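for the recovery benchmark. tokens below, seq after
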């Protein structure tokens, strides 16, 4: 990047990695990145690609790629990033997006369900022995992905950008469909954003996050189960609908671009419903 600040928000020539981009929000972010000029986008995901991935890939021939990896294992993430750099010649941005959600009262969560939420993609770890250990395991995947990306940036001499997907649930609970474990894990992601931004600024690495509100994906399955949901949305105020996945992309594209060269340690809420996450 030149010393002159960029006036145009563009990802032209950039190689971007996105965890959990085989579907849902991650795939929508990938679509927006390529629409804004990204040279290549790599999905790092433990799952299979589907029809939606194929359709997006066909719109951008040769630009969208998938690498199978468990993001809670640092060695796996390292191998994936090494493959990206080897194939594409560089890595300029990492979107740490992989995750899952489940909504129910705190007293009803099973140990297995908490383990799945806090380990990201249900990585197979041993039995949780204490609350302290459980608190730390929630952020393994996010931390490993960010650290692997940072090491790659430093090795390349690239002033890279890392963007976490946090959540409006990290700001406040959803009264109708609460999830204490999910909100806690995303609050941890936001805190990690600030700390890593402080540590890695010396390398020219920027670290930020985006907090989506209610987005129309398979993860918001519970919305249709609420008989009066439309009335609830109107009651809370703002824009009374769920966001389309593509409406999140602009925040990620900005933070990944050189137009955000002086932006680090911030969270961008993307939420049209004022009184609910």
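predicted aa per position
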């Amino acid at each position: 990047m030149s010393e002159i600040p960029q006036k145009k928000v563009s990802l032209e020539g950039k190689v971007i990695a996105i965890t959990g981009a085989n579907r849902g929000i991650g795939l929508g972010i990938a679509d927006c990145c390529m629409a804004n000029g990204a040279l290549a986008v790599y999905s790092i995901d433990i799952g299979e690609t589907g029809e939606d991935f194929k359709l997006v890939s066909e719109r951008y021939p040769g630009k969208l790629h998938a690498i199978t990896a468990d993001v809670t294992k640092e060695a796996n993430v390292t191998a994936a990033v090494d493959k990206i750099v080897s194939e594409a010649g560089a890595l300029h941005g990492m979107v740490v997006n992989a995750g899952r959600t489940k909504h129910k009262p705190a007293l009803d969560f099973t140990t297995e369900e908490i383990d799945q939420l806090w380990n990201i993609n249900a990585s197979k770890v041993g039995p949780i022995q204490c609350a302290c250990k459980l608190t730390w395991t929630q952020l393994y995947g996010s931390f490993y992905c960010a650290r692997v990306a940072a090491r790659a940036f430093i090795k390349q001499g690239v002033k890279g950008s890392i963007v976490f997907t946090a959540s409006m649930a990290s700001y406040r609970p959803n009264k109708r469909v609460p999830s204490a474990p999910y909100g806690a894990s995303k609050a941890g992601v936001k805190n990690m954003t600030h700390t890593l931004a402080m540590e890695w600024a010396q390398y020219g690495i920027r670290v930020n996050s985006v907090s989506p509100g209610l987005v129309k994906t398979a993860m918001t399955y519970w919305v249709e189960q609420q008989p009066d949901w439309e009335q609830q949305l109107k009651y809370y105020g703002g824009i009374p609908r769920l966001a389309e996945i593509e409406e999140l992309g602009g925040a990620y594209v900005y933070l990944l671009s050189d137009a955000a060269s002086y932006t680090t340690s911030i969270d961008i809420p993307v939420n049209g419903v004022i009184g609910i996450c």
